[in-house]
Amino acid sequence: AAGTYNEYFQLVAEGISWFGEGGLFWQIQIVPPRDDFTYSAQSPYSTLSPRGQATVWVELQNTGTTVWQRGGATPVRLATSNPRDRMSTLIGTNRINLDQEEVKPGEKGRFTFVITAGDHAGVFKEYVTLVRDGVAWMKDIGIFWQITVADTSTATIPGTSTETPSSTKSV
User: Which of 28, 97, 116, 126 is 20–30 Å from 52 (CA)?
Assistant: First the structure.
């Protein structure tokens, strides 16, 4: 159980006697395990053409008292939220694994995944938070990516051109 405990020790001559009344002790504090995190950084929002893809990431610092593990019985994962635990059409799942095998308290963990745009133009948001699978959801601080799916019939996607080779001018 959580709390502060004193563990006492005293010298003894085995089978003969104890040495005096003095002794020593160590004070031991048992802290309950606690999962927590703070936001560090994330990849920028994306503008995609229909069915286009973008690799995105988020970094979160482990400010709890437990180690985050990628695998095992209770892995820490990035999970869909708003609403919680839904299957995502942009991600194709509801859970994303850690990039690292483990993240100790004080270290930063990164989650990297691919977002795939749908067929229809519009602005979409994908919300996520952390979960220790099989144990509990962590706080939801509103982490999201805004994905703009451009209307390719009237817009130019950044990094593309509407010119065809026959209309290119030489200088």
Answer: 97
